[in-house]
Design a protein that fits this description.
The chain is an all-alpha fold. It contains eleven helices and no strands. Helix 2 crosses helix 4 and helix 4 crosses helix 11. It is globular, with a radius of gyration of 24 Å.
Length: about 280
């Protein structure tokens, strides 16, 4: 990370984003501070997505994305950005393509690098885009599935318990609370996770191991007898099995044509701007 943009120890990334949102359009805004915060946010976002293998690229790209974002704020005719973090997330992928394109143009100059394989580079870029698109599709689908979890839980509660509405509702609540506990980190561990992922980001940070270590699998009983813990666990197992089955069915191959690749690259290279009509709330 560029030492000129050192992160203040007492300022969180979310605080930086809030400060920018509240001050960037003020006449007395400290623009140097605003740009520094944009650089740090860009570095954090790129690190979180693991965009590069070369550590030096994070610094170069962070400056690139920060400058792009800062320049967008200077366009008075454009609709004001309400959330710098949402805006930077929305253009992150496109700026990555543009960065690769510009870096590629510098690196592959024949007089400096005659051994460069253009076909291999293009193939890698297409593969990267396809992987990203597939990930986005999968993530959106999984979000939709989790929105249906309450319905899935109800479908897996044995009918025998539906005859007692109070017991049924308490059982339903117990399963939901237990699932929530098993899917989300406790607040104290979530803070540790965010710190490792951002402030103390290391490429070797194993997110999956962290989750496995800190997630709780305790069964939460909501106004039902202790001897019903096994019933709650049985329902949870059935729900998880159904979720796994649904997610497995989401697997699909995303393929883009050479023409689509050229259009995406051109869009990224030509100073891509998000539609000004979009509401950046």
């Amino acid at each position: 990370m560029n030492p000129l943009f050192k992160k203040p120890k007492d300022v969180r990334f979310v605080d930086m984003a809030i400060w920018i949102d509240e001050n960037i359009y003020q006449e007395d805004c400290d623009l140097d501070k605003a740009f520094t915060y944009m650089y740090l946010l860009a570095y954090m976002l790129a690190s979180k997505e693991k965009l590069f293998k070369n550590l030096n690229d994070y610094d170069n790209f962070a400056y690139y994305l920060a400058y792009s974002t800062f320049s967008r704020y200077q366009l008075k005719e454009k609709k004001k950005i309400k959330s710098v973090l949402n805006y930077m997330k929305s253009i992150l992928y496109w700026r990555k393509l543009a960065y690769d394109r510009e870096t590629f143009n510098e690196i592959i100059s024949p007089e400096y690098n005659k051994g460069w394989d253009g076909d291999k580079y293009k193939s890698n870029q297409i593969s990267s885009i396809e992987t990203s698109l597939h990930t986005n599709i999968l993530q959106n689908s999984i979000n939709d599935i989790f929105a249906d979890v309450p319905k899935i839980v109800k479908n897996n509660i044995p009918k025998v318990y539906k005859m007692d509405s109070l017991l049924y509702n308490n059982l339903y609540t117990s399963v939901l609370l237990s699932l929530l506990s098993s899917y989300t980190l406790p607040k104290v561990d979530e803070e540790k996770y965010n710190k490792k992922l951002t402030v103390e980001y290391k490429s070797a940070f194993d997110e999956m191991s962290f989750y496995k270590k800190h997630l709780t699998k305790d069964i939460i009983l909501w106004n039902i007898p202790d001897n019903m813990e096994s019933v709650v666990q049985l329902i949870i197992n059935k729900v998880n099995a159904e979720l796994v089955s649904i997610i497995k069915d989401l697997s699909c191959d995303v393929k883009i044509s050479d023409h689509e690749f050229e259009m995406i690259s051109r869009s990224a290279y030509e100073n891509y701007e998000v539609d000004s009509k979009h509401d950046w709330s």
